[in-house]
Amino acid sequence: MKTVRFFGLVMILFISMFTTACDDDDADNSTQEEIIFNGNQIGDGTQEFYINGDYTLEKKTYVLKGWIYVTGGSSLTIPAGTIIKGDKDTKAALIVMTGGKIYAEGTASEPIVFTSNQAKGTRKLGDWGGLIVCGKAKNNNGVMAIEGGPNSPHGGNDDDDNSGILSYIRVEFAGYPFLPDQEINGVTFGSVGRGTKIDHIQVSYSNDDSFEWFGGTANAKYLVAYHGWDDDFDTDNGFSGKLQYLLSIRHPRIADTSLSNGFESDNNKDGTNALPNTSCVFSNVTLVGPLGQDPAFANSSEYINGGDLNPNNGSKTGVYQAAMQVRRNSKLNCFNSVAIGYPVGLLLDNEKGDVHGAATAGDLTLNNLYFAGMTVLGSDKNKSWKDAYSADGVEEDLTRESFSSAYFKMQPGNKYYYSISDLLLKQPNSLQANANYGPVLGSPLTGKNANELFSNEKLSSWFDKVDYVGAFRSDSDGDNWLKGWTNFDPQNSDY
Hints:
By secondary structure, this protein is mainly beta.
């Protein structure tokens, strides 16, 4: 293991003494590249800068310049308490290639922070690229190019593949648009395997999706999506991981031209039944939408304009849609979760593929969900916002209740409340001080029978068997897993 040390502004040049052996997935990256760590800088600002070999950073603050690739067979270790600032001018991004590893293991008291290099008070969504991890697990499209532009294919046949550790980290102000409608997400997982350790990650102010999975089997716990531009949790191309304890919080004035959702899930872009299916399993999720946070909220482009957070970088604002949009033959599953304050609660979209059929057959399962304060409970058509039946996601029968609403009402444990306050969440408003998304004593989300909540066979022993719905047991400090490592005002933080 090489240890990279920095002394003031002195450049230390490391040239690896051998060529990293690569498998077929890494053939394009077999040429040994020079690794430059210049003072507090990582990379030289070029768009394709390759790290070959095993390197450990010192705990300090760095500026990341350009697109930094950790190649197959190589690793980058980042100690707890390290701060890495993405450079705006070079559209900095950190990409872990197939076969490469990242060991970013922070702690609750010393998280690892990836953030903007812009000055305090001037940081905006999309100041830098973001974090991408690519692996060798299965997806349903073979070896794929990763979204956003980097030269990093992903995919294979090793569902137990290990891309390293991501634990107690924050990713802030990522998502620079390299081309129109082509941004890197806050955190992107491409065919990442279940051997990778993923927990306690907060993505804030991403200029695209906060988290997106393209295939893979990676499991994760304790994820936070905060004030993102597009979707919070986007699942595609056969992603089949297990996830528990997730929180998403929307800003009422930030939404994407493609329409912003809490969940957006596809099997693939064409809605085919390609295998493996997108069949991920979520439990204990809390989705906080825009309604109820600002009394002036209007789901219109006049209101949703980004406000003083708009990066004015070519990203187009749009409006909000659903807490959960499942489409294009996805077989996503969600249990024991709560969603509040979206124009649409559940959107099961049949325009491409047969999501309704999957739901009816039990291949797609949504049980023990508590929805509150939606404009309509369900809709069957994208960009409709009407509770009307549609068998094909195109033609609507306004005389019939949507399949989505009817399905929600029929599923075991699902409940709908017209008022957000009926759920007795402590203070679920991100625009006010002392936000707290946990339930208070007497909330209908607490005091459940854990065996009943976790009775479905899709909830394997990997999941913690808890007796509450949503991401938090209570509003108490002892049940607040956000404590210590998260930050809900990164614009004004001293880094």
